[in-house]
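ARCHIVE CARD
Drawer: 12
Card no.: 0347
Subject: one protein chain, sequence and derived structure
Cross-reference: see card 0346
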Amino acid sequence: MCAGYATFGDACRNNILLNYHHMDILSTLGRLATGLSILFGFPLVNNGAREGLKNFCSSVGWKAVVDPKNHRTLTVTYLAVLTLISVSVRDVGLVVGLSGAIFGSFLVYICPALIYTTIVKNRKGEGSVEYSKAKKNLALIPFGLFCGAMGASMAIREAIKRS
């Protein structure tokens, strides 16, 4: 991506492969690889997301969603909503920007601090010196939230500018 941006500068499209000529064999292979990745990765992601949705619905008391009799209805409805969204969104830049900003800051700053602190607490105990030191890592959480919010606001600002 950095090489593509260095090549095209500010005229770079959100999908870097769209900048290259349609007869370029390497960009065509890149498009094919991307398509195959989406084609074969979607069922894995969809299954995890559907199960997460079912767990959320179960935790808030919507038992009908979790009922095995409604599995097919839930799956069809879920896929229909995703298909409608994907057909209506013309520019993936906003989606990629928001998900990159939010999930990136979560995975880099917030999640490791929470996991490490929880592991030290469970293994050493809340009163231990190690846990007192490990709690300092929780200071990364506000920074991660700030970075995620800044990245999301920049993605939204860029999408508004392109509109």
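Annotation on reverse: The chain has a mean pLDDT of 87. The two ends are 23 Å apart (CA to CA).
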